[in-house]
Amino acid sequence: MIAPRTTLALLLFAPLAFFAAFFLAPMAVVALASFTTDEGGLTFAHYARILLDQYHWDVLWVTFRIALATTALCLLIGFPLAWYLVRIVRWRSWRRACVILIVVPLFTSNIVRSFGWMVLLGRTGLVNQGLMGMGLTERPIRFLGTETGILIGMVYILMPFVVLSVGNALAKIDTALEDASADLGVGPARTFWFVTLPLCLPGAVSGAIMVFALAVSAYVTPALLSGGQITVFSMLIFQQYSSVFDFHYGGALSVTLLVLTLVLVTLAGRVGERGRRAA
Amino acid sequence: MIARLLIRIVALAAMAYLVLPLVVIIGASLTETSYLAFPPQGLTLKWFGVLFDDPSYVSAFITSTLLALAATGVAVLLAVPASLALARYVFAGRAAAASLLMSPLVLPYVVLGAALLQFGTDFGLARSFEALLVGHVVIVMPFVLRSVLPLLTPEQRALEEASMDLGGTPLATFFLVVLPQIRGGIVSGALLAFISSWINVELSIFNTTSALNTIPVKMFNYVQYTIDPTIAAVSAITIVAAALVIILLDLLIGLDMLSERQQP
Predict the structure, then answer these.
(1) Contact list, B120 vs chain A (CB under 8 Å)
(2) String of b and e for A109-123 (b: at least 16 CB within 10 Å)?
(3) In angstroms, what separates the C-alpha of A66 from chain B's closest C-alpha?
(4) Are the beta carbons of A165 and B257 closer than 8 angstroms?
(5) Cβ atoms of B218 and B64 closer than 8 Å
(6) Residues in Cβ contact with A51 at an 8 Å cutoff, skipping those fewer than 6 apart
(7) Cα–Cα dist A83/A89, whole Å
(8) Which tens digit of pLDDT belongs to each residue from A11-37?
(9) Distances (CA, A) of A88 to A171, B38, B135
(10) Residues 31-90 of B with CB under 8 A from A
(11) Which residues form a coiled coil (chain A) (predicted)?
């Protein structure tokens, strides 16, 4: 008979050692580099360079503006789609086909999906052809290299997360609660606002957190759809590590993005938790 | 009624929005023209032929597949014991261990990729298959953990104890009792892990070279300079592969998670 402690140690040793060696240690190296100079002295200069420079604040603002707009649009479009799939569709096979069609993009690389939009949003792309064909615009609209273009691609890529998490929450709601509200003479709009919405809020919040975290750190989609015109924060990190090779400054940029992401995810999690308790 | 109609319109428009880019890519990969055209002009599979004649694409396909297979394998070997430990034992630091192992899910991959490059440079590990592998194991392990952990329930535990009481050795109990019970979770977790490794750019891009390249990174570097039917053909292959995996997952575990639960 092996003692429980020994078994526990045997089970956990390899996974924890692996994470310590290839996850914690690399992160520590980056954090350390961000606080040191080439000679190994302690410095805050790299952070000062980021925080005291207007350019970095501009890039951060663009990054957060795109991430916030992406999250809002994902909720705005994803919620009705989830509602439609859970509450309106009566034909099981159609719902199943829709779920598969929503998941397929999730399983396809960001490149492929952004590439699709590069083709669609070009000067002579299908979107501009359609808009001109309907007489909505006379000249092709420039999408690539604008925030609108990036936004179209990001919402496309991240919306499935919202649809799945809201849809899951909606499907779990006991409809007897809504019936009870209706029986008590409450109108459909008020029932939705006071009964249904609070019940699927946790799902919406967790979906939104996921979308926001992924949007803030997105690299591929902005890189492809910005055409070099717009810079987001992850591009700064990539530049430092791939062409400038300033690991100290790059490390400080990485730590900044990491801390901001974690703080926002934790904050949003708290809000979601409160919503859940109130519900 | 009007609200219902509105929801229907938004939902169908959203579905079209989700499907359109994939249709355009597959369509464009079939064009006979040497430039990208949608709707395709004429129908041909020649771009797929061009692809398989290009050794750099073939080797990238092989690298991506080997990497995803190896990362998934290692992740399963590490995640199964870890989930047993997390589900079965109460110990100091349990919550910390769990959040450490799950944290790659919310971490910016760009940061981890950069970290592995810098860390690897110090140890001569940078820009090698091993450097790619360890990073991929870290990011895909949470998927396996997340699908195995919920299966280690008290009911499952009871059977395990019964086996031990009847004189089964821990190893025999694991392979004959526990493993069959959590197999479904391992398979679906492994599929998710495989896919996330196969499509990753943000992490891989730091440690790839022109000789050691994965398909998504190769595509990323290519698309920034040229757009042509070859790249549409690679994309089409990945879309079809993803669709096949999902249909497989659907048949295996059922993806219809949006049906309203029947009230008992």
Answers:
(1) 26
(2) bbbbbbbbbbbbbbe
(3) 16
(4) no
(5) no
(6) none
(7) 9
(8) 889 999 999 989 999 999 888 888 888
(9) 12, 33, 43
(10) 36, 38, 77-79, 81-82, 84-85, 89
(11) none
Range A42-278 classified under CATH 1.10.3720.10: yes
Backbone angles phi, psi at A15, to 5 degrees: -60, -45
**Encoding tokens for residue A254?**
């990485």
Residue written as tokens 């995803």? B68
Alpha-carbon Rg of chain B, whole angstroms? Answer: 23
Give the domain ranges of chain A.
42-278
- Tell me which amino acid residue A178 is: E
Residue B111 · residue A258 · CB < 8 Å: yes
Exposure string (b/e) for B92-115, b if CB count within 10 Å is 16 or more? eeeeebbebbbbbebbbbbbbbbb
Q: Which domains does chain B have, with CATH numbers?
A: 55-227 (1.10.3720.10)
Q: What is the ipTM of this complex?
A: 0.83
pLDDT tens for residues B200-241?
Answer: 888 888 888 878 889 889 888 888 887 788 888 888 888 888
Tell which residue, A225, A75, A219, has the closest CA to residue A150: A225
